[in-house]
Design goal:
The complex is a heterodimer of chains A (about 350) and B (about 300). By secondary structure, chain A is α/β, with parallel strands linked by helices. Chain A has helices at about 1-25, 45-60, 70-80, 95-100, 130-140, 150-155, 175-185, 190-195, 210-220, 230-235, 255-265, 305-315, 335-345, and strands at about 35-40, 60-70, 85-90, 105-120, 130, 165-170, 205-210, 225-230, 240-245, 250, 290-295, 300, 350, 350-355. In chain A, the strands form three sheets. Chain A has an eight-stranded mixed sheet with strand order 2-1-3-11-4-8-6-7. In chain B, strands 1-2 form a two-stranded antiparallel ribbon. In chain B, helix 1 (about 10-40) packs across helix 13 (about 270-300), helix 5 (about 100-115) packs across helix 7 (about 160-185) and helix 10 packs antiparallel against helix 13 (about 270-300). The chains are: A alpha/beta (about 350), B mainly alpha (about 300).
């Protein structure tokens, strides 16, 4: 009895000590430090994590966290004001903006692309696809790899006769949104039957969870075709198809051809920077490209936090862009950086501009 | 003073235990209420059609749960069909046949399987199991049993059958571990009595199994619960296609997978509400399936004064 009482007391003392240390550690940041919370898209997450750690060295009194919970979750949390900034791959819809408690700004951060990957034994050179062929494959109208329509895009390539197995994302994702946005632009039939969105009702195919799920199924199953993010395809050295753009050239997806799509679309990018750049004009533009955005309220409630947020965004679209290429994201073209600067400069707290 | 025996410690203990038990009930009730209120929008919009419609199109705002219900129940049933005989075999071997120096490590390994995170099972499913099924198992099934509607269609290694098999592997450690404990709890005198009456070893094992039947059924229900709710591993191999097909080779979709896949990026109130209603349905499906299982158990075990009410 006495032994167990004594050991109980010992445990209690240890618990008290641990709690004390935890309490000390929590106060360790000291006064004057500001912390921000962000949440949203998973596609730019590797870049944002890099930004946060670099910015942390640069501004030790600022602590910013980013949760990659998905664009939908990011928008929801921003609207409920449980985070200081949100992030989304697709621009917010008009009705979402209207139902928000304040005006929301879209700050583009980097660009990404969706690439078409496949598993075809015996084919070594990159396949080429025209928009019609991609649409017909994903609609289930082209069923065999040696279909004359595919052959027409790929002269000199011996195509096998197997059935095509389509692999798409099963989780709702910005990648699917960009891809179906592109298909809706190039095919009225796709627009009417399926439409564009994060979680479309696919006419055919298998669903893989995440980029890794799609890649896993494509890599392991012969005669498959699927789509993944450019960064993911490059890092995993997947075979990547060339896609015919609106100027009629077959374009290999790369950082340069994605930037070309953004530059080509700069002139008709609206004032609020909400724009889809799929099927962009321009001879070198890769047609399945898109921006990703950080979402912030134009009027910040807390001037101290607002100032930190504005400084972070400013750093991101200038110094932060330098980290993009190494992580396979395309940096913003210069004219878009200029316009994003204007957006950041317009952020206020209680009517006073935060960047002076 | 609080308790009839006059022992305060007992009373405090009893109240603590009562609170623990009531808390559990309260959590279940609160979850049902939360699911029901959050899915009101979808319930109002679709009514009973939600349960019978086969269309799931978030872009056009049309939601029907039938393919998900089918996928959930079918994959779990396949899992049990495969897993239960194996689990019984493992348990009987460990308790009745294996010498101690084998039974211990093997039992430990089986329990270890239960601790592997489901995402690891899923990745193993994509990279090892699915190609294996595509190359060897499914072509053989199509060749020998192709006259059945269950084994027709294109062979990709991804689909309902693969989902069921991965579930079977995941529930086997649970079922076999519980059955092993149940069999071990059958009194040795039963075995001795059977052997003394001239029963063979096989007949003796049958006596033990009949004695442990209620506990074995409880183990199966536990495994079924895990199979119905399993998310990650199934998502990676089932193909995630909301379609009902008799063929086990075709892709399918489960309720838990659908919620996990689509909730993060679901925008629009109706879409979120439809996903929450899927959650409510999973709750009801689990409830009904468990109810049926218990009814079966009750029917089978009436009259047998079994031991080992393990579950």
């Amino acid at each position: 009895m006495s032994v167990s009482t004594r050991s109980f007391q010992l445990v209690a003392w240890i618990a008290v000590l641990i709690l004390g240390f935890v309490a000390l550690a929590c106060n360790g940041g000291g006064s004057g430090s500001v912390s921000l919370q962000g949440a949203g898209a998973s596609f730019p997450n590797p870049l944002y994590q890099k930004w946060l750690s670099e910015y942390g060295h640069h501004q030790p009194n600022v602590k910013i966290d980013y949760q990659s919970i998905g664009s939908g979750g990011g928008i929801k949390q921003l609207k409920e004001q449980t985070v200081d900034f949100g992030a989304s791959d697709a621009p917010m819809k008009d009705e979402d903006l209207k139902s928000a408690p304040g005006e929301i700004l879209h700050i583009p951060t980097v660009l990404g692309a969706v690439v078409i990957t496949y598993n075809l034994q015996g084919v070594t050179q990159p396949l080429r696809f025209s928009p019609e062929v991609i649409t017909d494959i994903f609609l289930g109208k082209i069923k065999k790899w040696n279909d004359p329509k595919i052959a027409a895009d790929n002269p000199g390539v011996t195509l096998p006769g197997g059935d095509i197995t389509v692999v798409h994302r099963s989780d709702s994702s910005g990648t699917s949104a960009v891809f179906t946005d592109y298909l809706s632009k190039v095919s009225p039939e796709w627009k009417e039957k399926v439409g564009a969105g994060t979680s479309p009702s696919w006419p055919i195919g298998l669903g893989g969870k995440g980029n890794e799920g799609v890649t896993g199924q494509v890599k392991n199953t012969p005669n498959t075709i699927g789509y993944v993010e450019l960064a993911y395809a490059v890092q995993n050295k997947l075979p990547v198809a060339q896609v015919k753009n609106s100027s009629g050239s077959y374009i290999t997806p790369s950082i340069d051809t994605v930037v070309a799509a953004a530059s080509a679309s700069a002139a008709n990018t609206p004032d609020d920077l909400r724009v889809s750049i799929t099927n962009a004009a321009g001879p070198q533009a890769y047609p399945i490209s898109s921006y990703t955005y950080i979402l912030v309220y134009k009027n910040q409630k807390d001037a101290v936090k607002g100032k930190v947020l504005v400084d972070f965004l400013w750093w991101g679209i200038h110094d932060g862009e330098g980290f993009a290429k190494a992580l396979q994201y395309a940096p913003l073209p210069d004219d878009i950086v200029k316009r994003a600067e204007g957006k950041i400069n317009s952020i206020t707290a209680n009517g006073a501009a935060l960047r002076k | 003073m609080l308790s009839p025996t006059g022992n305060t410690g007992d009373a405090v203990f009893r109240i603590l235990m009562l609170i623990a038990a009531l808390l559990m009930v309260a959590i279940v009730v609160a979850m049902v209420i939360a699911l029901a209120t959050d899915s009101m929008l979808s319930i109002r919009q679709f009514g009973f059609r939600f349960l019978t419609s086969q269309r799931w199109d978030p872009i056009k705002g049309e939601f029907g749960a039938l393919p998900f219900i089918y996928g959930t129940v079918a994959s779990s049933l396949i899992a049990l069909l495969i897993s239960v005989p194996f689990s019984l075999g493992i348990a009987v071997f460990l308790v009745e046949q294996a010498p101690r120096y084998i039974a211990r490590p093997v039992g430990f390994l089986v329990e270890l399987l239960a601790a592997i995170p489901s995402v690891v099972y899923g990745l193993w499913g994509i990279f090892v199991l699915a190609p294996f099924l595509r190359q060897y198992v499914e072509p053989a099934l199509a060749k020998w049993f192709g006259w059945l509607p269950f084994f027709r269609g294109s062979i990709t290694g991804i689909g309902l059958l693969t989902g069921g098999i991965i579930l079977a592997i995941m529930v086997t450690p649970i079922i076999s571990a519980v059955v092993r404990d149940v069999l071990a709890a059958v009194p040795g005198s039963q075995r001795e009595a059977a052997l003394a009456l001239g029963a063979t070893k096989w007949e003796m094992i049958r006596v033990v199994l009949v004695n442990g039947a209620p506990g074995i059924a409880g183990a199966v229900i536990l495994g079924l619960g895990r199979a119905l709710g399993e998310t990650m591993a199934v998502t990676m191999v089932i193909g995630n296609r909301p379609e009902i097909s008799l063929s086990l080779f075709e892709p399918s979709y489960t309720i838990a997978s659908a919620i996990a896949n689509e909730f993060t990026e679901a925008t629009g109130d109706l879409y979120v509400s439809a996903l929450v209603e899927l959650g409510l349905i999973l709750f009801l499906v689990t409830f009904i399936v468990n109810g049926i299982a218990r009814l079966l158990v009750w029917n089978v075990t009436r009259g047998t004064g079994g031991v080992g009410k393990a579950a």
